[in-house]
Amino acid sequence: VQLQASGGGLVEPGGSLRLSCAASGNILYIRTLGWYRQAPGNQRELVAEITSGGKINYTDSVKGRFTISRDNAKATAYLQMNSLKPADTAVYYCSMEIMSGLSFKTYWGQGTEVTVSS
């Protein structure tokens, strides 16, 4: 199983980006999808996550600005980021809890860089 993240880039404050994360390989079931970020000098933090039942959790700093979604048929997670701020600058990573055999395992994407700057 591999996760491929895309959609990062340079954007001005107030702008928008949409991140995507597509899983490929032997995928039987995807449980929780999550987006994390890590800014220079900081620990990786959870940005948003969505369960297989549709329950969503956001970190406080992105509530009302970011939207996480999933397309189970495409094994893809999305993160729509609006009203971006310089504080959102970080490398964004996707993660998925995937069953490809007899148990679940957490997989990570390679990271996509988001820079918010004028």
Describe this structure in words.
- This protein has strands at 2-6, 9-11, 17-24, 29-38, 45-50, 56-58, 66-71, 76-81, 90-99, 104-108, 112-116.
- Strand 4 (29-38) and strand 5 (45-50) form a beta hairpin.
- By secondary structure, it is mainly beta.
- The chain is built from no helices and 11 strands.
- The N and C termini lie far apart (38 Å).
- The strands form 2 sheets. Strands 2, 4, 5, 6, 9, 10 and 11 form a 7-stranded mixed beta sheet that branches. A 4-stranded antiparallel beta sheet has the order 1-3-8-7, with no helix packed on it.
- It is 0% helix and 57% strand.
Task: Give me a quick take on this structure.
The chain is mainly β. Helix content is 0%, strand content 57%.
Write the layout of secondary structure elements.
Elements: E1 2-6, E2 9-11, E3 17-24, E4 29-38, E5 45-50, E6 56-58, E7 66-71, E8 76-81, E9 90-99, E10 104-108, E11 112-116
Parallel strand pairs: 2-11
Antiparallel strand pairs: 1-3, 3-8, 4-5, 4-9, 5-6, 7-8, 9-10, 9-11
